[in-house]
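Task card 7
Instruction: Convert sequence to structure tokens.
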Amino acid sequence: MTARSITATLALAAFAAFAPSVSAQSAADKKTDKPAMAHPKPAAEMADLKIFDGKWSCSGEGAMEPGGAMMKMDSSVTGRSDLGGFWKSGVVKGAPMAGGPPFEGMYHMTWDSAGKKYVMFWVDNMGGWAQSASPAWQADKLVFTGDSQMGDMKARVRDTFTRNANGTLGHVSEMEVGGRWTKMMDETCRRP
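Output:
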């Protein structure tokens, strides 16, 4: 026998010795009737974010910087249930303000079952990002508070969404400046 055929024979013998134990182990697992791990389901609280689904046309006013002059602003928002219903995702597109570039951003919201709160992540086309949280709807208000960053500027932020009786959705965005909340945006969104 050559060295190669001896190695092949030893490998085959090792496999033959190992295979019955694998089969026995598999059979033992089947006998214990362990239930297969159930696929997780979205939290019931995700249903309370359904208002963010669909298309919205928004108008109001916003500032280019904290404490800056408020200017007319218009945007569109498209939201949807995402990733098996575990997330609400949306795209915001805003018309240019004061000769600036068009604005675009994305949000992602979910329910943190361990922390008993909603979380929201935001990113935009100016390099900005934010991470915030909200305990739940309080009557018709959902208030997210967290941290944001754009370039080297970091700030606390607060976004308040209001479900209005006429079917519109109000949105006020604020930034903490010198220990005080400063309004950066105040808009009303309607179904087109």
